[in-house]
Amino acid sequence: MSQDQTVIEETEHHLALRNLRLDDYNDIKALMDTVYANVGGAWPYTNYKAQVTTFPEGQICIEDKGKVVAFAISVIVDYDQFGDKHSYDEITGDAYLTTHDPNGDVLYGVEVIVCPEYRGLRLGRRLYEARKELCRNLNLKSIMAGGRIPNYKNHAKELSPYEYIEQVKSKDIYDPILTFQLSNGFEVKQVMSAYLPEDEASKGYATLLQWHNIYYEPGNPSLIASRKSNARIGCIQWQMRYFNNVEELLQQVEYFVDALSDYSCDVALFPEFFNAPLMGLSPSDSSIDAIWHLATYTDELLTAMSHLAVSYNITIIAGSMPVVEEEELYNVSYICKRDGTIESQYKLHPTPHEKKDWIMKGGNSLKVFDTDFGKIGVLICYDVEFPELARILSEQEMQILFVPFWTDTKNGYLRVRRCAQARAIENECYVAIAGSVGNLPKVDNVDIQYGQTAVFSPSDFAFPHDAIVSETTPNTEMTLIVDLDLDKLTKLQNEGSVRNYLDRRRDLYRVEWIGDD
């Protein structure tokens, strides 16, 4: 063997990816003392022992000829317990991983360190790919991590953290950590302050990073009662007609519920104020007296529709009905689930007509509803014309938005329709709208209707060419039944031609709910 060959063998790397062991601590300590010399150095052995023993599968390293030269520490958490506003110590249990939850849904990145002498070998990328493989194999929703921005110290005087992140994203500024994370498929979800207060180089700021596991399947496979990947939606284009009593109206309601149930629909959507014909039974000709009279039937109708939901095994979104609470009138949509539970969404924005002629008040809460066919939201008519509401719902992973509406003219209808289509595209969700048609000559101020029921989708190759899943004939009583593929939404959000959720400029703007939870 020549002298040259001997030198090559002695300097050649022999890299191996494996899980960390307790006896690796001296190597880990040396790495951390080198990299974090200015921020406290290495963890005590007690921390390291807790990490390796609590979640051994999540602690990985790369060794070179038996010496650890790079490593990554992770923990599984139930992310909803912490939310986006957390500190490093809170979500890692002061680095002891006391927050580890084997039944959690997110793999949280606690630490990644590469020996400075090995940084040209892309060992960090190997560790990140191993983490992604672990996330997929454990069927976790995503990888989350708080990322330092150590070069921010050089730009803090002229740039806000948001501006700095954008310049790193546009490659005008290089940051050794953030640039690396972005190149490995992570998205910046938001900026966190006081994440690591002792990190002077980052000025205490950190990026909240997320990588989505598009192969994630919620829950363990179940032979019965499992979450659906497809939802069959039934919408009722309701003909306004005179009814002599509540029983006649409920007979018509049951007819549609029965029909949609026969087609195995998961949900039946009724229009806003579908019960308006009962206003004709008011002893007064005044429109305000009529709407308040209509509210007296709501409890009876709600009880009956909840019973129908259970009997016909179909969730009913009961359009909307007027409700009087503490001498105030509200417009409320009830979600009657087929398991017998009832939830509600108040209309937040009464129209000028509703405020002036009916003295109607707006509700103060907004929520996403969990159903056995997906996460849904409900915005009543005028509410869909306020894009902030659907944006807030989309941040809570809403998949289908239901919009019961009631419009008298075509221009009023087109406002609802065009805004509903926009909500589907900008929030990457399905939107179903259902309205009423026909005339109510005996009811003051609500005597005419114009409506066309429809279901809209995002606009991309996997969806209909015009982003309209289906629609009815205008002004004709009928039903609309469509099948929605919910898995397409997940793929769109991560691999679509455009990615409205991921590409939002969170450094420039945000939408926040400041009302009741």
Automatic annotation (TrEMBL):
<dbReference type="GO" id="GO:0016747">
    <property type="term" value="F:acyltransferase activity, transferring groups other than amino-acyl groups"/>
</dbReference>
<feature type="domain" description="N-acetyltransferase">
    <location>
        <begin position="15"/>
        <end position="206"/>
    </location>
</feature>
<dbReference type="InterPro" id="IPR036526">
    <property type="entry name" value="C-N_Hydrolase_sf"/>
</dbReference>
<dbReference type="InterPro" id="IPR003010">
    <property type="entry name" value="C-N_Hydrolase"/>
</dbReference>
<dbReference type="GO" id="GO:0016787">
    <property type="term" value="F:hydrolase activity"/>
</dbReference>
<keyword id="KW-0808">Transferase</keyword>
<dbReference type="InterPro" id="IPR016181">
    <property type="entry name" value="Acyl_CoA_acyltransferase"/>
</dbReference>
<protein>
    <submittedName>
        <fullName>GNAT family N-acetyltransferase</fullName>
    </submittedName>
</protein>
<dbReference type="InterPro" id="IPR000182">
    <property type="entry name" value="GNAT_dom"/>
</dbReference>
<keyword id="KW-0378">Hydrolase</keyword>
<feature type="domain" description="CN hydrolase">
    <location>
        <begin position="231"/>
        <end position="486"/>
    </location>
</feature>
<dbReference type="Pfam" id="PF00583">
    <property type="entry name" value="Acetyltransf_1"/>
</dbReference>
<dbReference type="Pfam" id="PF00795">
    <property type="entry name" value="CN_hydrolase"/>
</dbReference>
